[in-house]
Amino acid sequence: MTDRRTFLGSASLAFAAALPGLSGAQETEQDAAAIPAGIRVPKFELLYECDATLLPAQEFGKTVEGQRRIIPITGGTFRGPKVRGEVVSGGWDWNLSRSDGAGTVEAAYYLKTDDGTLIRVVNKGVSSGEPRSPDPASGESFFMFTHPSFEAPVGKYDWLNRSMCVGTLGARKGARNAVLIRVFRLV
């Protein structure tokens, strides 16, 4: 169990270091000392940034887990250094405001690349339930970290099937019925 904790701690530190604007924290000497010498710390590269459009949430109701809602995904665009295109209408986010104050997201949808390839995305995440202030520089609100996984056909994009990714889920300043998703690939 210690090895897993060490790995997760290292990955969290690496993610925080790679995205200082999200964490708002600077790496301290104590943080650097927490990573034993010789351990390869994962690095992140931007896979894509996605603006996804949504319809208003449909309330499912209160369950033993909390307040459940489903949110239709209606489209959008994504762009990154190796992949770009549009979000296909027809996806869903099964959203939950948990009874402990945290929130979860489990979204399933398709991306259509600019060369016509369909890629299935399942994106899961959990928030602490703590309200977060918008970033003063961009006005973007941050909701949670996510773990997207991909199912791409054999060919040009099948490297996505073997990629480990993390993402952020938030909203752009002034955006209604839209979310901003940034996906980063561990390298």
Explain how this protein is built.
With 187 residues, the chain is mostly beta strands. It folds into two domains: 1-42; 43-186, Porin, CATH 2.40.160. Helices cover 14% and strands 48% of the residues. The protein contains three helices and ten strands. A hairpin with a 4-residue loop joins strand 3 (66-79) and strand 4 (84-87). It is globular.
Describe the secondary-structure layout.
Blueprint lengths: L1 H17 L1 H4 L5 H5 L10 E11 L3 E5 L3 E14 L4 E4 L3 E8 L4 E11 L4 E10 L13 E11 L13 E7 L6 E9 L1
Antiparallel strand pairs: 1-3, 1-10, 2-3, 3-4, 3-5, 4-6, 5-6, 6-7, 7-8, 8-9, 9-10
Number of helices: 3
Structural class: mainly beta
CATH architecture of the largest domain: Beta Barrel
DSSP summary, beta strand count: 10
Q: What are the salient characteristics of this protein?
A:
disordered N terminus, single chain, Porin, 3 helices
Quick recap of the structure?
By secondary structure, the protein is mostly beta strands. It has three helices and ten strands, in the order αααββββββββββ. The chain folds into two domains: 42 residues; 144 residues, Porin.
